[in-house]
Design brief:
It is built from 10 helices and no strands. The protein is mainly α and 209 residues long. The chain is elongated and about 65 Å long.
Amino acid sequence: MVKRDEDAQTKIVDRALAMAHEVGLEGLSLGTLAAALKRSKSGLFAHFQSKEALQLAVLQEAIKRFGKLVIFPALAKPAGGPQLEALFEGYLAWVRGHDQNTGCIFMALAQEYDDRPGPVRDLLVDSQRKWRNTIKKVVQGAVQEGHLRSDLDVEQFSYEMLGTAMAYQQEHKLLANPQSEQKARAAFEGLLARSRRSSSVDHQTRKHS
C-alpha cells in the first residue's frame, strides 16, 4: 500500500511539474491538477493538504531533477576544466528543455516569486544559492588544477556563466533565435579564454594596445 501511494504521488508531482512549466506555480492548484489528472480534488488531499504543500513538492522535484541531470554528471568528471565544461553543457541542456513547454523552471520562478514571501520563495532562494555555490566551487577547482588563472575573480566568472545561460533562454525560448545555442557557446568559450589568460599576458596586451 505504501509503495502504491508513493507511485501515485510521483505521478501527481510529474504532472504538476509539467503544468507548472505552463502556468507557473501560482497558477497551479489542487483543482486544476485534479481536472488534468481526471481525479477528484478530494482524492488529491490524501497526498497534499494544501496548494502550498503541492507547490513545495513540485519545486523539490525540480531541484532533485536538476541535481540528477546537471550537477551530479558534471561532478563525476575529472576536477577542473572537465567539470566546469560539463556543468555548462548540462545547464544549457536544462535551459533548452526537450520541448517548448519545458526549460529552466527556476528562471521563471525567480520572476514569479521575487517579491512574494513565503516557504516557496525560501526554498527557491536556498536552491539557487546552493547552485551558485556549486558553480563557484567548480570554478575554484579549475583554478586549483591550473586550468584557469590563479588570480581569477571566481564570483565574476560565475556571474557571467549564469548570465550567458539566462540570455540563451530568452533567445531560444522567447525569440526562437536559431543561433542562440551557437552564441551561448561562443560567449562561454570567450569567458574561458579570458579566464585562462595569465595576468602577465593581459598586462602586455594592454601595454601594446
